[in-house]
Amino acid sequence: MKHILVPTDFSENAYRALIYATKLFQKNPCTIHILHSFEAQASKLTSRVDIGKSEKVMDNLYDEADKKCEEVRQRLIKDTSGCGHKFDVISTAMSLSRAMNRICAQRNVDLVIMGTKGQTGAKEVILGSNTENVIKRIKKIPVLAIPLQAEFSPLSKVAFATSFRQSFNPSNLNELIFLVKLHKSNVEVLYVREGDSLSPDQRQNMESLLNHLSDIDVEVVWLEDETEKTKAIVDYIEREQVDMLSLIYYKHNIIKRLFRESVVKKIGRHPATPYLVIPAAR
């Protein structure tokens, strides 16, 4: 059984991400772990009281978080009656990214699913600070980011954006391949043209990728270079009604050098397409 981790700040966007998770895996019932971190509230409130009172403050925060988590679980059970999923709730005073990494390791989590906006919903926030922080700090586990406007639809068409400049580790692609097979999706590998032809290394990496994806329906799509490579990708997924965009996240700002700006942030501007960010295997 798959294990899916979905953090919540009790916002409607976070709940929509939970609903999306239940529908995404409706053909493959799984355990969905619902996590809430109240680190910010704990830090703020305990700094205002003496040591003797801080324990009581923490107890109250845990009680409140546990109560809200259970309310979310009961709402989810009601809204997804008969889905076959199991729901587990966890509240913690640890930071979100630290708690997620710990839970991922302890409970063999396969995928993180989260909304891209938090409670504030500020227009100037592209991913939401929590989403961006998780993408940067999560270890080994892919993150599927769900925009506020996204409505679930079966993954008929999935895009995978790459420059072919890095070699592909098969373990990077496991969850993508699982989802594609589950939904019988077509995969379009998007490459923004950088010249008339690929270098020998790029061609070798492309052949390696296609070999890893040999048992699914794959097409390589060559996009024309524009002023911003991410614009070419975003325009394509909108024009072709792509159901999910995926890419591999390389540490140490390789993504910025690859597309000359932050791919994760720019792609996040597309308001309705979920995107799967896969951490590069070390």
UniProtKB/TrEMBL annotation:
InterPro entries: Rossmann-like_a/b/a_fold, Universal_stress_UspA, UspA. It comes from Pukyongia salina. Coiled coil: none annotated. Gene3D superfamilies: HUPs. Residues 1-147 form the UspA domain. This is UspA domain-containing protein. It comes from the Bacteria. Belongs to the universal stress protein A family.
